[in-house]
């Protein structure tokens, strides 16, 4: 009996939700100074980074060919789905912490801690400061003929598996300078970020305009019969047959439809970063309106930029001749515009600078949000009286990222990909769906309830409305019909429970469907896999149909996701599919990080939580 009570107490603790009402939603210890333009520049800077100068070339050459343009378009659309969900939560819960706070309000404390802990990992190591800092150093070093690398290899090279060739002290210095800038004040940080972002956009416009003067649409439809290739000094296809072999069959879709989809999965990560806007809930002026506008505008700018750059690059040169490390400078050199490589290099430095700022800015905000809630150590929530920034959290996260940048190789840093970010995107989409059917001012548990309660309540309703129905088959049909299509015009506790269960079933089916597709990719099709595919498709779609038939809450918002539950469900599926497609090594590394987080939560967070 005692054990059951203990389990119930633990269950209540991990599923308790953060209470954010209209009276406390505007409270903040941080300085509210960020405008819509500041937020848009922050999102563009964090998203439109190294990917525009490197990723376009590697995806076009090795994965998608000229159809990389379509890959970026599909990736942009899927990212916009996530952006819409984040935008609604920015209007609902304008608090610092991004997906962590959003999931805390709806799903519960344990899930919120997992998301926050993963976001810290993503911003510090994966898509954030450490990896971008090393990329920044590499690009800067290339401008000065690799003098830094040459000197460091001579004086203090490291020959240890998993570590870098040499300790990158320059990256550490860059990280700490930007950490000091962020700690000094949000207004000053926003000004520097805007300058770098405007310069980056200017360089992209230059690349598109200059590159399009050398565009050749034959490069999108090149086949074996073509007599020569643009930029190959008149070499015939026969002379290039050996080099051509690894790069598909030519045309706009040289790697076929699967190449297009695979390229989309890679291009999706180029749009990761806009969610940093959602961490500014306590520093934005009028966050209910400025955060949604900042997210939508930044994604629109990034979408146009990626489409323009990928189109320009593949029209300047045949896709299989593109350079994977420096595609734009090499492409300009091939078409007789070598001088253009210098402004491109400046743009790359600016883009990496804004990416670094965009990666470092959210880190202390998430740590601050978790610390002020009591899930991390309280001293991390201390805000400086003059700068109005979380000073300790800022310098601690910056120092950690700088140390990672010193010792670890760039490849090792990005091995984890963006699994934490994808998990956050999934939980935010799930939370949007749940909140649309949420019973406000009433307690509705997410997991701890019985499905039997649902049928019992509907049985009582059915019996009261039709006393003549005494035989079970008809009563069972009425139960089912009223379960799927209730007469209530607003959410009730039982409707919220139905939506919760349907969401869990659909998400689980999506995950199993993704796992089955991964197995099919490895082992090929067979009859058993086809049966499972059909079952999991039905298990994903049917619950969403049931949810769509339920009445939604009529709470007015400055921004809300259209076509609920379709848009959140599509977003959930894309994110879950991408997470499952990550290599097993990524999940192994995640386990280590999550074990550390679990220890902190169980031995500190559960007891010190403000809720």
TrEMBL record:
It is a multi-pass membrane protein. GO terms for cellular component: plasma membrane. Keywords: Membrane, Transmembrane, Transmembrane helix. Residues 559-609 form the Cationic amino acid transporter C-terminal domain. One of its GO terms (molecular function) is L-ornithine transmembrane transporter activity. Gene3D superfamilies: Amino acid/polyamine transporter I. Pfam families: AA_permease_2 (PF13520), AA_permease_C (PF13906). The keyword Transmembrane helix applies. The chain crosses the membrane at residues 36-56, 68-89, 101-126, 169-186, 195-213, 252-274, 295-320, 340-359, 390-410, 422-440, 498-521, 527-549, 561-580, 586-606. The keyword Coiled coil does not apply. Its main location: membrane. GO terms for biological process: L-arginine import across plasma membrane; L-ornithine transmembrane transport. It comes from Ciona intestinalis (Transparent sea squirt). It is found in: Membrane. This is Cationic amino acid transporter C-terminal domain-containing protein.
């Amino acid at each position: 009996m005692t054990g059951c009570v203990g389990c119930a107490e633990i269950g209540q603790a991990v599923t308790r939700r953060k209470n954010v009402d209209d009276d406390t939603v505007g409270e903040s210890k941080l300085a509210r100074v960020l405008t819509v333009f500041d937020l848009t520049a922050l999102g563009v800077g964090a998203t439109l980074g190294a990917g525009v100068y490197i990723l376009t070339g590697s995806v076009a050459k090795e994965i998608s060919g000229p159809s990389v343009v379509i890959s970026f378009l599909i990736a942009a659309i899927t990212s916009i789905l996530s952006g819409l969900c984040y935008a609604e939560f920015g209007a609902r819960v304008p608090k610092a912490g991004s997906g962590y706070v959003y999931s805390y309000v709806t799903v519960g404390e344990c899930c919120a801690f997992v998301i926050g802990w993963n976001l810290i990992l993503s911003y510090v190591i994966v898509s954030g400061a450490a990896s971008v800092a090393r990329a920044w150093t590499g690009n800067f070093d290339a401008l000065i003929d690799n003098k830094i690398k040459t000197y460091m290899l001579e004086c203090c090279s490291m020959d240890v598996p998993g570590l870098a060739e040499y300790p990158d002290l320059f990256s550490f210095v860059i990280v700490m300078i930007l950490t000091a800038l962020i700690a000094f004040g949000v207004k000053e940080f926003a000004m520097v970020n805007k300058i770098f972002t405007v310069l980056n956009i200017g360089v992209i416009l230059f690349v598109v305009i200059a590159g399009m003067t050398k565009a050749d649409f034959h490069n999108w439809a090149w086949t074996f019969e073509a007599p020569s290739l643009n930029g190959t000094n008149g070499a015939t296809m026969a002379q290039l047959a050996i080099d051509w072999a690894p790069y598909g069959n030519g045309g706009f879709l040289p790697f076929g439809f699967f190449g297009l989809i695979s390229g989309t999965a890679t291009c999706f990560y180029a749009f990761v970063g806009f969610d940093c806007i959602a961490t500014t809930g306590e520093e934005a002026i009028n966050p209910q309106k400025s955060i949604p506008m900042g997210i939508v505008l930044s994604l629109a700018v990034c979408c146009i930029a990626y489409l323009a750059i990928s189109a320009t690059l593949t029209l300047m040169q045949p896709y299989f001749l593109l350079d994977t490390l420096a595609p734009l400078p090499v492409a300009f050199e091939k078409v007789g515009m070598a001088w253009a490589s210098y402004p491109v290099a400046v743009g790359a430095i600016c883009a990496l600078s804004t990416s670094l700022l965009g990666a470092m800015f959210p880190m202390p905000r998430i740590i601050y949000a978790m610390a002020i809630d009591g899930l991390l150590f309280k001293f991390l929530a201390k805000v400086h009286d003059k700068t109005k920034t979380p000073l300790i959290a800022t310098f601690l996260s910056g120092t950690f990222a700088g140390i990672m940048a010193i010792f670890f190789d760039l490849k090792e840093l990005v091995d984890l990909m963006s699994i934490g970010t994808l998990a956050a995107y999934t939980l935010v989409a799930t939370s949007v769906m749940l909140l649309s059917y949420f019973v406000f001012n009433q307690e509705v548990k997410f997991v701890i309830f019985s499905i039997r309660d649902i049928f019992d309540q509907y049985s009582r309703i059915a019996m009261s409305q039709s006393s003549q129905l005494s035989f079970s088959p008809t009563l069972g049909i009425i139960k089912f019909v009223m379960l799927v299509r209730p007469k209530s015009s607003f959410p009730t506790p039982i409707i919220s429970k139905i939506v919760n269960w349907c969401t869990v079933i659909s998400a689980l089916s999506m995950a199993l469907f993704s796992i089955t597709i991964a197995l099919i990719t490895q082992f090929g099709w067979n009859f058993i896999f086809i049966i499972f595919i059909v079952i999991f498709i039905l298990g994903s779609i049917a619950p969403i149909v049931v949810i769509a038939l339920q009445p939604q809450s009529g709470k007015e918002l400055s921004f809300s996701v259209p076509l609920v539950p379709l848009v959140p469900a599509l977003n959930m599926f894309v994110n879950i599919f991408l997470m499952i497609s990550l290599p097993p090594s990524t999940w192994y590394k995640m386990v280590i990080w999550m074990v550390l987080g679990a220890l902190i939560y169980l031995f500190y967070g559960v007891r010190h939580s403000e809720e």
